[in-house]
Amino acid sequence: MSNTVSNTLPHSSILSDKAQVFISYAWNEKDSEENERLVNQLQADLSQRNIEIIRDKQHLGYKGDIKQFMQQIGRGHYVIVILSDKYLKSKNCMFELVEIAKHGDFVDRIFPIVLSSANIYDPVILIDYIVHWEQEITRLEQAMKKVSAANLQGIRESIDNYTAIRAAIANLISIIANMNTLTPEMHQNSHFESLYRALQEKIEQDNAA
């Protein structure tokens, strides 16, 4: 496939060593067909430029450790984040985003694409997301009262994760909202050229360090 890059893609420069790039997105949402098309095109276009996309649907096998995989994303040097309404309400997706931030250099390591369903530029909507996680914490706390503390193994970890998400979500969304992320249509129409250039620059900087 690589020998057709110059004919199909607008930028002919290809990374000499295959770079692994994680993708963090909510793939089981109602508008997943559109979401999947975008991610599939993204993977195909970047693969032609010698970039390997790591997706849980393809790389997390049967009985694979989900939490370990999410933590691996959190430690990734290059993470494409496809932000949607479902993403911002998903405990797994938000765990990944918080993990990325926890390991530092958040702005340098993420390459976001913001879908229209994630209206992160409206402060009222941002508050709604915070309220969502506060409600999730309250709902879980109320449920925990129904059983003895001895039977809550693993549940307390969920409370801790929800609390970390609630504490971080406003700041993380504000950081992404301040980036010029372009529209999904602009990315698709250009075969993700701007995203690729940003990835290429960061990868080359890291290789030179």
Structural account:
- There is one protein chain.
- By secondary structure, the chain is of the alpha/beta class.
- It has one domain: 3-Layer(aba) Sandwich (Rossmann fold).
- The protein contains 11 helices and 4 strands.
- The protein has a 4-stranded parallel sheet with strand order 2-1-3-4, sandwiched between helices.
- Strand 1 (19-25), helix 2 and strand 2 form a beta-alpha-beta unit.
- It is globular.
- Residues 1-8 have low confidence and may be disordered.
- It holds the Pfam family TIR_2.
- One of its GO terms (biological process) is signal transduction.
- This is TIR domain-containing protein.
Please state the CA-atom Rg, rounded to the nearest Å: 18 Å
Q: Kindly estimate the percentage of residues that lie in beta strands according to DSSP.
A: 5-15%
Largest sheet: 4 strands, parallel
Classify the secondary structure makeup into a structural class.
alpha/beta
Organism: Thioflexithrix psekupsensis
Protein name: TIR domain-containing protein
InterPro entries: TIR_dom, Toll_tir_struct_dom_sf
Structure characteristics:
single chain; 209 residues; alpha/beta; Rossmann fold; four-stranded parallel β-sheet; 4 strands; globular; disordered N terminus
Task: Briefly say what this structure is.
By secondary structure, the protein is α/β, with parallel strands linked by helices. It has helices at residues 5-8, 32-47, 56-59, 66-75, 85-88, 91-102, 106-109, 123-144, 155-177, 184-189, 193-208; strands at 19-25, 51-54, 79-83, 110-114.
